[in-house]
Amino acid sequence: MTRGRFALGLAVVAVPLGLALLGPALAGEPGPRSLSFAPGDGHLLGTDFVGRDVWRQVLLGGRTVVLTALAATALAYLVALPVGLAAALTHVRRLEELLMRPLDVLLAVPSLLLILLVASVFSPGAAGLALLVALVNVPDAARIVRAAAGEAAARPAVEALRMQGETRWRIAVGYVGRAALRTLAADAGIRLTGVLYLVSTAAFLGVGVAPDAADWAVMVDRNRTGLFVQPWAVVVPALLIVALTTGTNLLFDAALEKTPRRKGRRP
């Protein structure tokens, strides 16, 4: 079952990921523009709202989505891991409150609303969008890290390591971090899926990208007016985004599926 799910996830994610990574190298030079929403006219998937070739826009539009989502997820954990581990391992209540309570305040604000509020003050590019998405994911990620690490830190083995004179770094990374790795990896898979949706939604609303940028989410937004005339300009990028998120989730589920426990011997 696990092998089949892994193969299915790999098959689903291979197309959008391959287009995102290799598409710009295969796109070639832009040809002359044609009529808006032309279903054929020498174009494999027709033309978009300004007469550009949809297939070329598909080849160019995935890299931004994928790189922004990966960067945002990595940045979120870059902050959440040390904060969560420090909160779980500290014995000073005030320090734990100082680390976690500001994140709880940030967690109370809806993610998309916070991104739109910041974007209304200044116009972030792709890097700015990655930072914003990372920022709104830090509080939840830090709480997951703290909960997973706190369970491991309460084990008698940690107290034994302290009595043996092990350094805090080795306890935090060598034991607590390794014990919480499975939980954090599962959360990373789910979070990457959520980040992909958030990045796509923000791009759909015009945050972080130009209105006519070659971006899958922007393509869905800008071409939806011609959905019933030339549906490929909307359907193809939308399906690629769905396949990317669904395939990623399937891969993480298959990789982290627990093996069945062996039954104990009868006395």
The helix-strand sequence is HHHHHHHHHH
Strand content: under 5%
What can be said about the biggest beta sheet? none
Mean pLDDT level: 81
The 3D shape can be described as elongated
Radius of gyration: 23 Å
What are the defining features of this structure?
elongated, disordered C terminus
Explain the overall architecture.
It is a single chain. The protein is mainly α. 72% of the residues lie in helices and 0% in strands. Helix 2 (54-89) runs antiparallel to helix 3 (93-107), helix 4 (111-121) packs antiparallel against helix 5 (126-153) and helix 8 (181-204) packs antiparallel against helix 10. The longest helix has 36 residues, at 54-89. It starts with a helix and ends in an 11-residue tail after the last helix.
